[in-house]
Amino acid sequence: MADRRGAAAKVKKARRPEVRLPPLVPWEDGAGLEPDGDYDGVEIRDADFAGQEGIGARFMDCAIEGCGLDGTGLARARILDSTLTGVRGVGTDLAGATLRDVELVDARLGGVQLHGAVLERVVIRGGKIDYLNLRKARLKDVVFEGCVLVEPDFGGAKLERVEFAGCVLKGVDLTGVTLTDVDLRDAAELDIARGVDRLGGAVISTSQLLDLAPVFAGFLGVRVEGN
How far apart are CA 125 and CA 142, in angstroms? Predict the structure, then answer.
């Protein structure tokens, strides 16, 4: 950990996705998800996938906008070279999924299961995600930008070249996490509930260090009292 002056030249920046969608085919009204379904070059707008099962499905070069994902089963799905805008839902299951070259914009999600998932060259911009489960996940070249994350769980995850720009992070769980070139300096709010001892490999600002001082003291068993 270090401040901006000491670490600016050392932290490797995340590589952002460059999503260039081809001409898209509109989604058929009333069509549902299918396990192991193959969706290529599809534009999906305002569809409600609540409770549907798309386990192992592949989405390639897709634009998904304004869709409902309440309880949608997308475990082991592959979402590649695609954009998701304004999706919403509670309990979406993306356990073991792969997201590569993906933009997720203005999502409103709660209890999303991404444990064991792989995220590479992903931007998550705006919106709010409550109780995001990324336990044992692998994140490489991921940017969280201007979003609100409430009690995200990174337990046992591996993060490499991950940035949190203008984000509000509340009650973060970093238990057992492995961090490499993780930039937290520009987070608008940084509240770490557990795993402060795992911040090695991250960079924070001087002001964040002061804010986290009570957490560090608690971890070290240091009692701070006024004179």
Answer: 11
The C-alpha atoms of residue 48 and residue 68 are separated, in whole angstroms, by 5
Q: Which of 106-110, 200-204, 208-212 has the lowest mean pLDDT?
A: 208-212
- The pLDDT value recorded for residue 30 is 75
Are 117 and 140 within 8 A, CB to CB? no
Distance CA 124, CA 146 (A): 8
Tell me the pTM: 0.90
Strand, coil or helix: what is 21?
A: coil
Mean pLDDT over 200-222 rounds to 79
State the Cα–Cα distance between residues 4 and 11, nearest whole angstrom: 10
Rounded CA separation 15/86 (Å): 23
Sign of CA dihedral 90, 107, 16, 145: negative
Say which amino acid occupies 158: K
What one-character DSSP code corresponds to residue 73?
A: B
- Nearest-CA neighbor of 110 among 124, 127, 95, 89? 89
CA–CA dist 75, 92 (Å, integer): 9
Tokens of 212: 């986290």
Residue 47 CB burial class (10 angstroms; 0-12, 13-18, ≥19):
buried
With a cut of 60, say whether residue 49 has pLDDT above it.
Answer: yes
